[in-house]
Batch of 3 targets.
Target 1
Amino acid sequence: MMELNVDRLRALRRELLGGEGAAPAPEKPALPALPARPPTLCAGCGHRGVFYTLAKLKATVTGDIGCYTLGVAPPLSSMDTTICMGASIGAAFGMRKAGYKGRLAAVIGDSTFFHSGMTGLLDVVYNKGAITVVVLDNRITGMTGHQPNPGTGRTLLGEPTVQTSIAEVARALGVKRVHEVDVYNLAEVERVLKEELDCGEPSVVVAYGSCVIAAKKAVGAVPHAVDPAKCKSCGACFKLGCPAIVRGEETAPGRFRSKIEPAACIGCDVCAQVCPFKAISTTKE
Amino acid sequence: MNETTNVNLVGVGGQGILLTADVLARTAAEAGLDVKKTEIHGMSQRGGSVSSQVRFGAKVRSPIVPDGEADILVAFDAVEAVRALPSMRPEGRALVDRCYLVPITVSSGLQPAPEDPDAMLGRLYGDRLLRVDSRALAAEAGNPRTANMAIAGALSRLLPFPEAAWEAALRGRLPEKLVAVNLRAFALGRAALA
């Protein structure tokens, strides 16, 4: 951490002014080993199910810049490249042209697509690139603090404006295969992605789900819960990497029942759809 | 108390740390003090380590609490409380929730589980440690999402502000329909640390 914090500025002042200035900071206490707590996709984030499905389908995924870049982190581990804004599409297209035969998905957010994805997509169509561009469309610029973009329907100042449709842009650029899916319907996401990844021509899947935070989905949300009688400690839900899903009781060495933190869960239902034993359901009466 | 009081609030993204810090900052302002506040969160909106620092006094010039100078630590998670130890004054008090959220790195098996958080806290903070079970209090108040205001209620015992200032700050920060249940959680937290 190289930020200009108080400690660093005080040390510089001592260095520059000799003995003047505050005394050196007291020695830091020694800490026990602690696990890192890196940033993760939000509980209920719509990106999660798409990455889970891409990993399940063993697609090679070229990524882009946004909250969804966190799809690279375990346990999802579902992103293979991240270069710069808009690079997802060019990287996937280049891999195809270089002879890669496997399933290839370029994953890009709505905001990045408008910023620098459209030109790449035009190149893919024009030069007959057989890749699938998955646009994670949450209608907002999430990571940098929820700025509106041309897909939001309002300007930065909050005035209503044109809401550009990503599907229409893709069609106008010449993409014949354009699908829109609901990110919270995993069966649908899987069916469409599987079909498109194997279709052998340029395709676009717009995966729509509004940003959990921008849409204030946590307000009044009813959380899901795990039924311990049905949970078989299989760990399937842990593979989603949802921060609301935590380890519960240890039923065998290294095997844990899952538990849902009610304060964190927004009831998106993705874990319930992944659970093979139907042990997760809403707590709604 | 020192001329400027430094409060460091830490926890996990999504626990309501930033809102609690807002309420604290507004309370200090209601009480007529100069207030500065800052926050640090990760590249995503949720899930990672989050901290917010609130400083108040007659005149506060910078929002950042230097390491080793926090008078009060408010930790929403036990392991984050351990991580925040270097921020504390040797005599500073730590209000630490009973909650320990297992980090994704541990639940996915990438990193070993830490030592028992309660044991670490006892060893490192000794009699400077105060515990609160905000989730139980929030359940009692009638909404699990009010856990942060239960913690604020407990925190109110460590600070000289009148209860009315807290209430005004809370009303100013929350939508009308959530005020009553959050005030209930606040009162339960305040009673818990009596």
Target 2
Amino acid sequence: MEALPLHFQLDVPFPCSTEAQIAHNSLSPDAEPRKGGVSRTLSVQDNVLSVHWQADEARILRVSVGSFLEHLSLVVRTMDRFGPALSDS
Amino acid sequence: MTIVIGFEGSANKIGVGIIQDGKVLSNPRRTYITPPGQGFLPSDTARHHRSCVLEVLHEALEEAKIQPKDIDCVAYTKGPGMGAPLVSVAIVARTVAQLWKKPLLGVNHCIGHIEMGRLITGAENPTVLYVSGGNTQVISYSEHRYRIFGETIDIAVGNCLDRFARVLKIPNDPSPGYNIEQMAKKGKKFVELPYTVKGMDVSFSGILSYIEDMAHKMLSSGECTPEDLCFSLQETLFAMLVEITERAMAHCGSQEVLIVGGVGCNVRLQEMMEIMCKERSAKLFATDERFCIDNGAMIAQAGWEMFRSGHMTPLEDSWITQRYRTDEVEVTWRD
């Protein structure tokens, strides 16, 4: 069976664009493992963080999405506890 | 006045420390402890760190009695270490750096150990023995680099001890190495083990295989006790480390030794190193478990030095890396 590339799209609304941008910057730097058969792209539009995955195998896609959600949850908890963002000093 | 907060989570400890101009304001830490016979796996360790990093951060700020606005720089471990735990901690560092509008700084974990050891002991220019669960290196400073004179060619000395503890089901609480050290004090018989120094380097995997193979046979036949094995393993491993440290000192004409890393708080290792130092009229510097074992303050301290000499890590370059050698970092803060 010839497998088609799999896609997954996630849109996460934040209370404001600053928070969406912070989440984007915190979650972007670590790329998916080399030649892992999965790619992930992040972007921000207003207050929405959008993530798009493309993968060869469902198993790899599931692991990548699962781990991203854990990290996203950590960012949100960090903002809840240590936010809101300070004004420029 | 410069205040730096440091996040560390490259192995099974998660720590957040705050340093203000050479003073440790706070340094709380939690350890992920697995049942006897089991090691810590990356994903479980990362989950542990994610579950308590915010609590540890809160504790660090409370104890230091400072506000986020007082902080000048947010330092975190860039590597080396286990990928999943490193990422989890880096994500929190990146998020608070943005919330608080502070510069971010990725720190080499090994450099963190060295700078913390120098700060606490006041050693000026020591030959450094860095021994932990993941690293074994003899290091000397020259021309703006911490240069690796010798290292393990396979597993770290602490990994050898940890895995031996698993064979005998020695508890991992507070750490396998600590429990081996206590048992070794009651050892009476020295069991000869392979001794593998290769020039300036050491090898521990063969010793581990050997002792894994013979331990159960010798124990069931009553030839020796678990305490004897702990004693023999420590004596053998530490003799190798003292030998390469002494050779590095001879090369560099160094009269100071600094022991850092988790295995560095082993008192027997410190005793053996002290004997060698006495013979050479050199001085030994070591710290206790608060600063030897991975902690946040060591990352804050290395971060403090780096920040003061102009380093910063842009967010987009703040990726973590499992491999990051000590000599990759240009030491701009020393002459």
Target 3
Amino acid sequence: MTHLRWPVALAAVVVALVMQVSLFPHVAWHGVVPNLCLLVVVAAALTVEAPFALLLGFTAGLALDLAPPADHVAGRWALALTVAAFLAARVRQDQKPSALAVVGTVAAASFVATSLFALSGVLLRDPATSVAGLLEVVLVALVWDVLLTPFVLPPLMRLFARLHPQWATS
Amino acid sequence: MGALGGHDGRERRWTGLDRLESRRPPRSLLVALVLASITLITLDVSGGGSSPLEPARRVVGEAFGPAEATVAAAVRPFTAVPTWFRSKGDLADQVRDLEASNAELRGRVELAGFERNRLEQYDGLTTAAEDLGSALVPARVVALGSRQSQSFTVTIDAGSEAGIGPDMTVVNNDGLVGRVLRVTRSTATVLLVIDPDSTVGGRVGSSMEIGFVTGSGSLRQEAGLDLRLLDDASVPARGDTVVTWGSTTGPYAPGVPIGTITEVYSSLREATQRAVVEPFVDFSALDVVGVMVPSGSASDRAVIEADGTLR
């Protein structure tokens, strides 16, 4: 089943990205939408081996950077999601993570990824909004991601675990 | 025996550690991927307009554009659901408001006819009259950039096949929406005027003073846009309409309404006038937009010509 993991993971990223830009803006809060790509990456990092999760984080970030409505400097989401995947992979213990651990990991990854993206904008002299505005975006995005965790993470983690029997059994 | 047991224990511990180690995220891969990201950022920043990543953006856009359009079309019937639950009272109120604004607009249009005729005479003198009329390609918004990405851009479902190219002006029935950044075959990316990166040449309606309108980076209509006038001495009046100053060759077509001035600040230190312009367009509810293309250009869909006919 392992040969299927890349196609399945990439399909999950594509679906997440399209939902994120086409469906969720209708329910967005002041333009902030849940970062579904981040949820896919965290699900992979919590279930499968770290190199795969890191590469998936980079790929998902690159897709976010290049897919149509995006106009920021490419590579910023790739950086943010790679680091988020690394952190999420470090959190994982040998046993299956508890529900609380999953929610905590999503919250931490969301905070780190959105903040890293915002900080890279500050470094690149993007005419960004105020620090208060950035903080608001980071916190609202965190709440969105945590709210969607119960619906998105369990099926994704089950899917990834089934594609990696050698990790799922131990 | 004890030594053997200890040896066994150590063996186990070592193998256990090994297994743990193998599951630790590899730092080398992290460093490699972070460096790759930074390389991409550097390439894109230094490339500017002709960035080496533009072809990649185009390829990804060709792939994602149709998917976004499909999902947006599937979602559209559901976003209309809240309008089914409006009471008769709501609708009656809306009819009354619309009748009032209709009467006001009709009065304005009756006057505008005279003004327009006079303007056409002047324009005839400069032989620009026929060039001013450009056609509109109708399109729908299929995807919105998230605010986490710090840019205010949307994707529309019309691209190069519909006759759209970069730097064309995008409007809706309220006023200026933005300009086209890049196109794929079936979609185009539009930079909204509320983006902090966006600068539009603006003209105050009553005084004809020119200035620059910059986005404020907020979807809320009252947050508005920033207007700075070139002439420090002139003070814009509240309630004045701001239209694009533009040129027929530049990114923004001239004479498109942007918004009304709601506040005026004068900064003593900088000796300039700063005004807040509330845009006519509600950017949180963008749907149908029109892209201004040169009159008579080929398109894969019906085009609205300057005189209102459909072609």
